[in-house]
Amino acid sequence: MRKKIGIILGLVMLTAAVLAGCGAAPGGSSAASSTAAAVESSQAAKLTIKMLNVGQGDAILVQTAEQTVLVDTSDVDERDKLKRELDKAGVKRIDKVILTHPHADHIGGMALLLKEYEVGEVYDNGMPSTSKIYIGYMKELKAKGIKRHALKDGDVLDLGNGVSFKALYPSAELAKEGATPGYKHDPNNESVVGKLTCGAFSMLLTGDAEKDAEEKLLAAHSADLRSTILKSGHHGSATASSVHFLKAVWPETVLISCGQGNDYGHPHPDILARYLAEPKFTDRRDGKTKKTKIVKNDKGEVFKAKVYETDKNGTITVTTDGNSYEVTAEQGAAQ
Ligand SMILES: [Zn+2]
Question: Quick one: signal sequence residues (predicted)?
């Protein structure tokens, strides 16, 4: 009996959460019958996303009224920056950590998280890795009794407040192959790719997915890729953001996570020019001026986005109520 009441109560609470969640019209019927405080919160941001300024790596903080989620944890050497940024954001507990793939610039901060913060659950692509950092944090998860789940195409995480994260990649087939001992891994192209949705707003999180993963995403999900904001794949590298992929995603804003003066030359000037629809770019390697591949849709309209980079703009904050969104940067403006 108690269980039944629990289920019914859960359903009522879920319905209430959906009603009060993203895209609910401010001052609408659900808020009108509530208290003034409830009305106020229904008009406030339902979702805050911070692309943290953590040097050369990724760490994206996703917060709803109910949950705090961190997508990737930047590199081992950048842990002081990660701690500073999490402290600035007032983070004490991280309900979910999503690790896109086991490269150091994405999982390097796990030791810090597990030592200094309360961590609820960990999600990754479910594939084993021989990386020392990976083996280390897996041991730590076991010792602390923290659950680790694998994400694959079709899995949906409820982040509360009507916000969801829907995994689009890896495919079930790749997830199965990749979990088989002896499989030859291509970690970037095994990155968890997923769409964060809040009402009419969406952001595509790509990890370090490159052209190979982009092609597979286009084949499986061409109609689902369109997003308000794109996290530039692989730190703005020329190995990602292919013309066909950008044509499908067609974001209004692109966010790039990269370190100042990084050794990789991220973001690549060709890719930056492609986002900005600039016809030419200067190749840093040979100093030559080259033509940019301009992205156009079937109507012949040219793709052009606003671009923010953590190396130039510091931490970039996106807030949305599910209808409109705002991007603010610690320094400078969008390109
Ligand atoms: Zn990376």
Answer: 1-20
Ligand 1: centre distance to CA 186 (Å): 13
Residue 312 lies in a domain: yes
Asked, for residue 5, whether it belongs to a domain, the answer is no
Q: How confident is the model at residue 197 (pLDDT cuts 50, 70, 90)?
A: very high
Distance CA 89, CA 66 (A): 15
In sequence order, what are the beta bridge partners of 201?
Answer: 198
Question: Is 21 part of a structural domain of the chain?
Answer: no
The count of domains in the chain is 1
**Cα(58) to centroid(ligand 1), Å:** 6
Rounded distance from Cα 269 to ligand 1 centre (Å): 18
Q: How far is the CA of 167 from the centre of ligand 1 (A)?
A: 18
**How far is the centre of ligand 1, averaged over its atoms, from the C-alpha of 304 (Å)?**
24
**Do residues 78 and 55 lie in contact, with contact meaning Cβ atoms separated by under 8 Å?**
yes
Residue 117, domain CATH: 3.60.15.10
Span from the CA of 188 to the centroid of ligand 1 (angstroms): 8
Going from the Cα of 106 to the center of ligand 1, the distance in angstroms, rounded, reads 6
What is the reported pLDDT for 36? 37
- Residue range(s) defining the domain that contains residue 49: 45-329
Which region among 26-30, 78-82, 231-235 has the lowest average model confidence (pLDDT)?
Answer: 26-30
CA of 332 to the centre of ligand 1 (A): 24
| Separation between Cα atoms, residue 321 and residue 23, nearest integer Å | 7
CA 54 to chain CA centroid, nearest Å: 15
